[in-house]
Design goal:
Length: 196
Protein backbone atom coordinates (compact mmCIF):
# COMPACT_ATOMS: atom_id res chain seq x y z
CA UNK A 1 0.00 0.00 0.00
CA UNK A 2 2.69 2.54 0.97
CA UNK A 3 4.75 2.04 -2.19
CA UNK A 4 1.68 2.48 -4.37
CA UNK A 5 0.61 5.57 -2.41
CA UNK A 6 4.11 7.04 -2.77
CA UNK A 7 4.15 6.39 -6.52
CA UNK A 8 0.79 8.15 -6.88
CA UNK A 9 1.92 11.07 -4.73
CA UNK A 10 5.17 11.49 -6.67
CA UNK A 11 3.42 11.36 -10.05
CA UNK A 12 0.99 14.09 -8.93
CA UNK A 13 3.69 16.26 -7.31
CA UNK A 14 6.21 15.96 -10.15
CA UNK A 15 6.87 19.31 -11.81
CA UNK A 16 9.70 20.26 -14.16
CA UNK A 17 11.63 17.04 -13.41
CA UNK A 18 11.65 17.63 -9.67
CA UNK A 19 9.47 16.74 -6.74
CA UNK A 20 9.40 18.16 -3.23
CA UNK A 21 9.31 15.56 -0.46
CA UNK A 22 9.77 15.56 3.27
CA UNK A 23 12.58 13.56 4.84
CA UNK A 24 10.63 10.33 5.41
CA UNK A 25 9.22 10.25 1.89
CA UNK A 26 12.55 11.26 0.32
CA UNK A 27 14.42 8.46 2.08
CA UNK A 28 11.66 5.98 1.21
CA UNK A 29 11.73 7.00 -2.47
CA UNK A 30 15.49 6.57 -2.57
CA UNK A 31 15.44 3.18 -0.80
CA UNK A 32 12.73 1.88 -3.13
CA UNK A 33 14.21 3.35 -6.31
CA UNK A 34 11.27 5.64 -7.04
CA UNK A 35 13.64 8.44 -8.10
CA UNK A 36 14.20 7.45 -11.74
CA UNK A 37 14.53 10.60 -13.79
CA UNK A 38 13.84 13.52 -11.52
CA UNK A 39 15.41 15.49 -8.69
CA UNK A 40 14.10 15.39 -5.13
CA UNK A 41 14.03 18.62 -3.16
CA UNK A 42 13.68 18.06 0.59
CA UNK A 43 10.99 20.17 2.23
CA UNK A 44 11.26 21.63 5.72
CA UNK A 45 9.53 19.32 8.21
CA UNK A 46 7.86 22.21 10.04
CA UNK A 47 5.61 22.81 7.00
CA UNK A 48 4.17 19.28 6.80
CA UNK A 49 0.89 20.03 8.57
CA UNK A 50 0.16 23.51 7.21
CA UNK A 51 -2.86 22.07 5.36
CA UNK A 52 -4.16 20.03 8.31
CA UNK A 53 -7.76 20.23 9.44
CA UNK A 54 -7.74 20.67 13.24
CA UNK A 55 -10.60 20.61 15.72
CA UNK A 56 -10.61 21.11 19.47
CA UNK A 57 -13.44 19.14 21.06
CA UNK A 58 -14.78 18.27 24.49
CA UNK A 59 -13.75 14.75 25.58
CA UNK A 60 -16.92 14.12 27.57
CA UNK A 61 -19.51 14.84 24.88
CA UNK A 62 -17.32 15.20 21.76
CA UNK A 63 -18.85 18.62 21.05
CA UNK A 64 -16.79 20.89 18.86
CA UNK A 65 -15.14 23.75 20.76
CA UNK A 66 -13.50 25.33 17.72
CA UNK A 67 -11.73 24.69 14.45
CA UNK A 68 -8.09 25.79 14.46
CA UNK A 69 -5.62 26.84 11.82
CA UNK A 70 -2.19 25.27 11.45
CA UNK A 71 -0.82 28.15 13.54
CA UNK A 72 -2.40 26.43 16.57
CA UNK A 73 0.22 23.69 16.24
CA UNK A 74 2.86 26.09 17.55
CA UNK A 75 1.20 25.76 20.98
CA UNK A 76 3.20 23.68 23.47
CA UNK A 77 2.10 20.06 23.84
CA UNK A 78 1.42 20.94 27.46
CA UNK A 79 -1.71 22.71 26.17
CA UNK A 80 -3.42 19.30 26.33
CA UNK A 81 -2.41 18.79 29.95
CA UNK A 82 -3.65 22.25 30.92
CA UNK A 83 -6.91 21.62 29.05
CA UNK A 84 -7.51 17.97 30.01
CA UNK A 85 -11.19 18.15 29.09
CA UNK A 86 -10.25 18.68 25.41
CA UNK A 87 -8.90 16.52 22.65
CA UNK A 88 -7.54 17.47 19.25
CA UNK A 89 -8.85 15.86 16.09
CA UNK A 90 -6.50 16.13 13.10
CA UNK A 91 -6.95 15.23 9.44
CA UNK A 92 -4.06 15.50 7.01
CA UNK A 93 -3.30 14.17 3.57
CA UNK A 94 0.04 13.00 5.03
CA UNK A 95 -1.68 10.67 7.48
CA UNK A 96 -3.90 9.40 4.65
CA UNK A 97 -0.74 8.62 2.65
CA UNK A 98 0.32 6.08 5.28
CA UNK A 99 -3.16 4.65 5.92
CA UNK A 100 -3.95 6.52 9.14
CA UNK A 101 -7.48 7.83 9.69
CA UNK A 102 -8.97 10.14 12.28
CA UNK A 103 -5.96 10.97 14.46
CA UNK A 104 -6.76 12.37 17.89
CA UNK A 105 -4.41 13.69 20.56
CA UNK A 106 -5.31 13.93 24.23
CA UNK A 107 -4.06 13.54 27.77
CA UNK A 108 -5.21 10.37 29.53
CA UNK A 109 -7.41 11.30 32.50
CA UNK A 110 -6.07 8.53 34.72
CA UNK A 111 -2.35 8.32 33.91
CA UNK A 112 -1.76 11.86 32.62
CA UNK A 113 0.06 10.56 29.52
CA UNK A 114 -0.14 12.13 26.06
CA UNK A 115 -1.95 9.68 23.81
CA UNK A 116 -2.42 9.34 20.07
CA UNK A 117 -5.57 7.51 18.92
CA UNK A 118 -6.28 6.59 15.31
CA UNK A 119 -7.53 4.03 12.84
CA UNK A 120 -4.88 2.17 10.83
CA UNK A 121 -5.65 0.58 7.44
CA UNK A 122 -4.13 -2.85 7.84
CA UNK A 123 -5.78 -6.19 7.27
CA UNK A 124 -6.79 -8.15 10.34
CA UNK A 125 -4.14 -10.77 9.58
CA UNK A 126 -1.44 -8.12 10.23
CA UNK A 127 -2.31 -8.06 13.92
CA UNK A 128 0.66 -10.12 15.13
CA UNK A 129 3.14 -8.06 13.11
CA UNK A 130 1.58 -4.84 14.38
CA UNK A 131 1.75 -6.02 18.01
CA UNK A 132 5.34 -7.18 17.59
CA UNK A 133 6.38 -3.82 16.13
CA UNK A 134 4.68 -1.83 18.90
CA UNK A 135 6.18 -4.12 21.58
CA UNK A 136 9.67 -3.65 20.13
CA UNK A 137 9.54 0.06 19.35
CA UNK A 138 7.50 1.63 22.14
CA UNK A 139 9.68 2.17 25.15
CA UNK A 140 8.09 1.86 28.52
CA UNK A 141 5.94 -0.42 30.55
CA UNK A 142 3.17 -2.75 29.45
CA UNK A 143 0.09 -0.73 28.66
CA UNK A 144 1.84 1.91 26.58
CA UNK A 145 -0.56 0.97 23.78
CA UNK A 146 -3.87 -0.71 23.07
CA UNK A 147 -4.86 -2.34 19.81
CA UNK A 148 -8.16 -3.73 18.58
CA UNK A 149 -9.43 -4.67 15.14
CA UNK A 150 -12.70 -2.94 14.28
CA UNK A 151 -14.73 -5.30 12.06
CA UNK A 152 -17.20 -2.57 11.11
CA UNK A 153 -14.58 -0.17 9.73
CA UNK A 154 -12.00 -2.76 8.73
CA UNK A 155 -9.38 -0.74 10.63
CA UNK A 156 -7.10 -1.33 13.57
CA UNK A 157 -8.05 1.02 16.40
CA UNK A 158 -4.71 2.05 17.91
CA UNK A 159 -4.01 4.08 21.03
CA UNK A 160 -0.45 4.65 22.21
CA UNK A 161 1.37 6.85 24.67
CA UNK A 162 3.71 9.40 23.09
CA UNK A 163 6.11 9.02 26.00
CA UNK A 164 6.98 5.57 24.61
CA UNK A 165 8.16 7.01 21.29
CA UNK A 166 11.88 7.69 20.93
CA UNK A 167 12.48 11.43 20.72
CA UNK A 168 9.43 12.44 22.78
CA UNK A 169 9.86 15.51 24.97
CA UNK A 170 7.04 17.02 26.97
CA UNK A 171 8.41 20.47 26.08
CA UNK A 172 7.75 19.98 22.35
CA UNK A 173 5.08 21.85 20.40
CA UNK A 174 1.89 20.22 19.15
CA UNK A 175 3.33 20.40 15.63
CA UNK A 176 6.52 18.65 16.70
CA UNK A 177 4.42 15.97 18.42
CA UNK A 178 2.48 15.40 15.19
CA UNK A 179 5.74 15.14 13.25
CA UNK A 180 7.04 12.61 15.78
CA UNK A 181 3.84 10.56 15.50
CA UNK A 182 3.99 10.71 11.72
CA UNK A 183 7.62 9.58 11.63
CA UNK A 184 6.90 6.70 14.02
CA UNK A 185 3.88 5.57 11.97
CA UNK A 186 5.62 5.96 8.62
CA UNK A 187 8.39 3.60 9.77
CA UNK A 188 5.81 1.24 11.30
CA UNK A 189 3.87 0.97 8.02
CA UNK A 190 7.03 0.60 5.93
CA UNK A 191 8.50 -2.06 8.23
CA UNK A 192 5.35 -4.16 8.47
CA UNK A 193 4.69 -4.04 4.73
CA UNK A 194 8.25 -5.05 3.90
CA UNK A 195 8.26 -7.89 6.42
CA UNK A 196 4.97 -9.37 5.20
Amino acid sequence: MLKKQMEIYISKALSENKVELFKEEKEYAERHHLTNDFTIVEKENNTRFTDAYIERSNKENEELISEESAAFLSQPLEYLKINKSEFLYIESSWFELIGVETLSLEVDDVFGTYNALFGLKFQKKMGNALKAYLNNELQGEIGTYSLMFNQGDGLWDVNFSLSGVEGFKEEMSLGDALSLIYHFLFILVETIEEDN
